[in-house]
Amino acid sequence: MKTILIAGGNSGIGLQAARDLLADGHRLVLLGRDPRKGEAALASFGTAGDRASFLAADLSTHDGVRDAAQRVLGQHDRIDALVHTTGVFTFQESRTADGLHPFFAVNYLSRYHLTQLLLPALRQAGRPVVVMMTAAIPPTDEADLARFPEFTPFDFSHDRKPIQLANHHYAAHLTRTEPGLAAGVVNAGSAKTDILRIAPWYVRATAKVLGPVVFDSVKTSAHNVVEATRRDDWHSPLYWGKPGRFEQRTPITLDATTTQHLMDASHRLTDA
User: CB 3.0 to 4.6 Å from 238: which of 35, 158, 184, 219, for a disulfide?
Assistant: First the structure.
């Protein structure tokens, strides 16, 4: 039985991954912002819910991440897998309490920050795994990283790619610096989830009309996350770009100097 932490496991793809991993007999810790969704998720598991717990956490701020990590470490000495399915989808210019754009803070920096703080527990596992879910951004894509990490003012069309690519760089960094740890990035696909609730109205309208044709099922989008978490036969760092196709993966091979530059900036922001 593995102990698996799913950030964002109380809804959407993270919730589906939780159901599938509970069916395997694993023990789960779910993190999410909304306590009501957390309670509903636990109730939906039936008797398997005895192997799951929920912690309310705001992962958009440094203090929120630190608080979540402290509580997790207070309850668990060992974490076998850490799965990041949290995400926000916004075009707006706004800032968190730390002065960062929420798209950057949640879709990348919180993953770096939380994982770094939980490394003591991950190191206790025989083969720790870290899986990060992103949009369909393969590691071979090029992006302008000059605005990292401020992204001021935020420009979704220009900034989304370097923010998502930072997850690939972190996966490469983890596997280089943490012996035995497997890290990968999974394309979430186009599943219709709660992430669309703060999208512009025209995006929500398009999703409503075209959803039955273009969207993946939530179960399909969760498939590669679940397989990467439950299986021990893959080498990292890897990117799964096709939802539902675990055997189709791309090695994450990146410029080490660029990776170190991004990690140094992430460390300065979080002190982790």
Answer: 184
